[in-house]
Amino acid sequence: MRKLTHRLSAIALLLTILFQPLTSGFAADFKREVIYQIITDRFFDGNTANNNPSQSAGLYDATKTNWRLYWGGDLQGIQQKMSYLAGMGVTAIWISPPVDNLNTNIPDGGGNPTASYHGYQGRDFKRIEEHFGNSGNTWTDFDAMVTAAHQNGIKVIIDFAPNHSTQDNAGEFGSLYDNGSFLGNYTNDTNGYFHHNPNISGGGWDDRYQVEYYTLFDLADLNQEHATIDAYMKAAAQLFQQHGVDGFRIDAVKHITWGWQYSFANSIYTYGDSFLFGEWYQGNTADPLYHDSYKFANKSGISLLDFPLNTAIRSVFGSNANFSDIDSVITAEGTNFTWKEDLVTFVDNHDMARFLSVNNNNNRLHEALSFILTSRGIPCIYYGTEQYLHNDTSGGTDPYNRPMMPGFSTTTTAYTLTNRLSALRRSNPAIPYGSMTQRWINNDVYIYERTFFGSVVLVAINKNETSGYSISGLNTSLPVGTQSDYLTGLLGGVPITVGSGSGGNNPVTTFTLPAHTVSVWQFTEGAAPPQIGSLGPTAGQPGVKTTIAGRNFGTATGTVKFGTTTATVNSWSPTQIVVTTPSVTNGNYNVTVTNSGGTVSNGIQYTVLTAKLIPVTFTVYNATPTQTGDYIFLTGNTVELGAWSTTWDGAVGPMLTPNYPNWFLNASMPAGQTIQFKFIKIAANGTVTWEAGANHTYTVPTSGVGYVNVNWQY
Ligand code: NOJ
Ligand code: NOJ
Ligand code: CA
Predict the structure, then answer these.
(1) pTM of the full predicted structure?
(2) Cα of 512 vs its chain's centroid, Å
(3) Catalytic annotation present for 367
């Protein structure tokens, strides 16, 4: 009897292990994921019944010749291809904005019909688009797709576009609905739900005020500082969290006020575990707003798509530029971005020509893919890449970069490559969490090393199509001995012999890197002290849960400290711990894990906010005079206000001055708290001028939005 019970419980345990959802861990630790970007309409038609729904009839083109109409792909289609995606090593999908979109046809300049098949013209953010789900705009198909994804170990990210509703001068004129009830539109905007400014154009693209408050491509620009729009968008995002989404790709973050976005991120994290990344379009690190982009990423809780690295990847692998282009972006962003491992890296996307339209060379595509799958950041692969999809009409740019998925072969090299490197990202922590160091470089060859404590991954890419290179003088922290290619020659990789050296510089015996090859060598460290690789979210008020990810935490629960304060542990596993932000004074804390044996981990920074964040618009009238390059900032007594910092990165701002010498800024403030603050001028040369007098004080509302209007104190 005893034996039988034992056997039964062993079987029960086995069953629990076998049938546990494959989704590994929490969305907060997205560094271990491989994202796959899907244009829902162009992936797979899983249900022909929703192709031409009655409320928006005529927007479907069965012939697939008008590239700006719906072609039939839908949520059921994605659901049916889950095992295809899982087999490729995809662990997260980013799908088109799934919300109810524009119902009408808006003819283009040539009189051809166009539709919002891409999803970027939302009309009701609380319902599902009928072409993707059903004509009742219900959640049924969305829920089924999310369930199937999770069963296959795949997380779901939705594209979310809160900057605007539909086109403001045609179609539905920006009409916005709240779960079916009409809220308002652009042309008769009695409530002030929209900003009414011209399109962003020319130099306006680099002007902070125009970038945030002007109109993006005729799309009705929502006023998120209005309490109704603020509450509506936060409720809509929460609805998607309730329906199981693991993350949000936020559209056009450069064009929405920072204050609102910090509070939006805080609202999502307060509700639950998630990962957020935004589209901050920029060409390179010399962009006039590049500094803004990393300040935003460092403070908002919203990571970014890595556009500067994307540009370098396309020039190096697409146009044969020197590998130093990539190496210098990695170095620059490495010093600027606090959470660089959360940047989402990509070779191409729906807004640019596919890689093969730029350079129709599969070797180069494989090399670029290998690069994003092994370098720092979270890789995102555009649908069809693994099938070598491209249509080169008009250079392959939008909409020709969005063809129908041509097939679902599971035997292509790109498919296999992604699967193998996805497995390595899971097994070796150096890829998700490690540092990245250049070890050997020339125009054609890039050898870089990722290390996380004792775990190491060394990658060598030779993009020269015809010449091999003799590699001498290479050092590595890989262990002594022969290291074989982790890809087992899939891309022509070779073994290396590592000799004995010191200080993490073991000499590699001179070897030849053959033409157009990728070699990956790796070592995963065994037992070691607790090691933290990731924390998410990186800021929250007392009570908000945060996930600590890493290794060697042990199975027995230990303790987690924020500075010297012990936090409540909600769950504990050897690789992930969820803790509740303790009630400590607002500010930055070093978070550490102590295992049950008393060994303490490395520390990682977390910002304890004063309270939940709400957007407050500050205006200071008649501020002290400024010259070109001088800016007015806000600073004050809580971490949200920069804790009296007077630096560009520490204070809140720069403020905007469409009506000089008045300056204003929408900022995120702790709800219900009485704050003290002042305005300062930071001159172009760094000199700081404080306004005179006593500190201003303001009690932030407990909910909704706030406004503060004061005069600069002379
Ligand atoms: C950026 C998106 O990626 C693009 O496809 C879209 O048209 C614009 N934002 C506007 O939403
Ligand atoms: C100097 C400011 O003038 C004052 O108002 C503020 O209280 C302190 N900085 C905070 O350190
Ligand atoms: Ca369909």
Answers:
(1) 0.95
(2) 38
(3) no
